[in-house]
Amino acid sequence: MARVAVVTGGTRGIGEAISVALKDAGFIVAANYAGNDERARAFEARTGIKAFKWDVSDFDACTAGVAKVEAELGPVDVIVNNAGITRDGTMKKMTRGHWDEVLDTNLGGCYNMCKAAWDSMNTRKFGRVVNIGSINGQAGQYGQVNYAAAKSGIHGFTKALAQEGARAGITVNAIAPGYIDTDMVAAVPADVLAKIVARIPVGRLGQASEIARAVLFLVADEGGFITGSTLSINGGQHMY
Ligand code: CAA
Q1: Is residue 155 within 8 Å of 174, Cβ to Cβ?
Q2: What is the pLDDT of residues 85-108, one digit of tens each?
Q3: Which of 14, 85, 87, 88 to mutate to test the pocket of ligand 1 (most atoms within 8 A of CB)?
């Protein structure tokens, strides 16, 4: 039977590419989104993938959201924790609100989603979790203490949860994308982005599809011996 996958932030950017790749590979996909209904409807029409609205930073909303997906599509076998936001600014300007928003969404969302599906995965002795980290969680980035801390936290979360899931057939891995051609990266000031791209050995931004194909690799049934790993996909910008 087809596996059921939930992709958070799954209707745009890297998440959209992951949702589509999973569907094309035969998964039943639920694409979670937080805010933009119009874009979600357009995504559904474009891809034939159902979009489900909830805020990953809200624990109860994640519990209810996963229950809704399970009622409509079946038990969740795969979680891709992709939802992420930026609130960039140097420490001088970063508010406590900007810190909380990024930590609660990018890192808290991983906890909330895994918690919601964990018991069921343990009972069924199968699960695949892929957490989308970042080069900026590995190397740091000027103006991103909140984002770098959250993404770095994702890498620790991955290694800890991988140990807990191992005996139950649940793998937990991370991908650390570099700078990918998405709206999030397009929001970086053009002069700053040009300097960043100049430091990427491959000489260009990555494509969302280049992250999606790695997700497919990690969530395969045959991937049971790969757990606790981080796959860095960054055009050679940070070799770690
Ligand atoms: N190293 C040293 N100095 C730097 C610097 C760097 N890397 N980047 C900026 N600065 C300096 C500037 O030259 C400027 O100095 P002056 O005041 O002397 O001119 C100063 O820092 C900037 O001060 P501001 O008061 O303007 O800073 P700000 O609080 O408004 O923040 C910024 C500016 C948000 C950091 C902006 O430079 C920026 O957006 N940088 C890019 C951040 C980034 O890479 N974000 C990634 C988003 S995409 C993503 O996160 C996806 C992923 O996973 C990869």
Answers
A1: yes
A2: 999 999 999 999 999 999 999 999
A3: 88
- Is the minimum distance from the CB of 179 to ligand 1 under 6 angstroms? yes
pTM: 0.96
Residue 237, domain member (yes or no): no
Indicate the number of domains in the chain.
Answer: 1
Quick check: is 38 in a domain? yes
Note the pLDDT of residue 202: 98
Interval between CA 132 and ligand 1 midpoint (Å):
22
For the purposes of burial, counting CB atoms within 10 Å of the CB of 53, is it exposed (0-12), middle (13-18) or buried (19 or more)? middle
Domain membership flag for residue 85 = yes
Ligand 1: atom nearest CA of 90 is 29
CATH of the domain at 192: 3.40.50.720
